[in-house]
Amino acid sequence: MDILFKFLPEQAVSPCFELIKTNNVHLKIVNQRQTKHGDYKKKVNGQHVITVNGSLNKYRFLMTLIHELAHLIAIEKYGNRIQSHGQEWKYTFQQLMLPYIKPEVFPKELLPLLARHFKNPTASSDTDVHLAYALKKYDETHGDNTHIHEINNGDKFKFRGRIFQKIGLKVKRYECVDLSNGKHYLFNANVEVEVI
C-alpha cells in the first residue's frame, strides 16, 4: 500500500488497495509505453495482472487503474464474451469511478469534465480532448510542449521520430500527412508535437 502513495491521490490509496486486494490483482507499475496507459490480462493460471505506466500523473494513474479493474470485474460478472469496451464495461467503470469523483480526490477544475466523461466513458480518456488536455496540466513534463491544435495548417512537425505536415481539422481530429511516405493520419487535438 505504501507504494501506491507515490502514484495515487492520497484519498484514493486505501480504497484502491482494497479493490486490488479483493480482486486478487498483481499490479505491475511499468515504464512509459507510447501506445497505452495500462492493460489487464488474466493468465492461464487464473492470476489477474494489471499494468499501469508509472510515468502517469496521479489523476490519470487512478483513472487507468480503475479502467483496468473495470475490465476484470466486468468479465468476472458478465463473462468473457462481452465487448472489451462495451456496455457492461462502461457501467462497471462508471460504478467504480463514482466514489472518486469528488474534491477530496480530484482538483475542482477536473470535476465537471470527469462528470461529463463518465456519463458515457470511452475506451481511452485521450479521445475526450477537453479532459485529456486538462489532465496533461498535471504531468511533470507539462509546460514547454506544443499541442497539435496550437500549430497552423501547413506547419511541419516531428512526432515519434517522423516528420508530418498539418492539413486541417477533420470532424474532431486533425488530418496530417507523413512526409516520408505520403500517408494521411488523424491526430487528437491534444497530441504533443515538436514544431520544425
Describe the structure.
This protein is an alpha+beta fold and 196 residues long. Helix content is 33%, strand content 23%. It has six helices and nine strands. It has helices at 4-7, 10-22, 58-78, 87-97, 111-117, 129-136; strands at residues 25-30, 38-42, 48-53, 146-147, 156-159, 162-170, 173-178, 184-187, 192-195. Strand 2 and strand 3 (48-53) form a beta hairpin. The protein is globular. The termini are far apart.
Highlighted features:
Zincin-like, alpha+beta, 23% strand, 6 helices, SH3 type barrels, six-stranded antiparallel beta sheet, 196 residues, 9 strands
Describe the structure concisely.
With 196 residues, the protein is of the alpha+beta class.
Q: Topology, pairings included?
A:
Layout: H1 4-7, H2 10-22, E1 25-30, E2 38-42, E3 48-53, H3 58-78, H4 87-97, H5 111-117, H6 129-136, E4 146-147, E5 156-159, E6 162-170, E7 173-178, E8 184-187, E9 192-195
Parallel strand pairs: 1-3
Antiparallel strand pairs: 2-3, 4-9, 5-6, 5-9, 6-7, 7-8
Helix pairs in contact: 2-3, 3-4
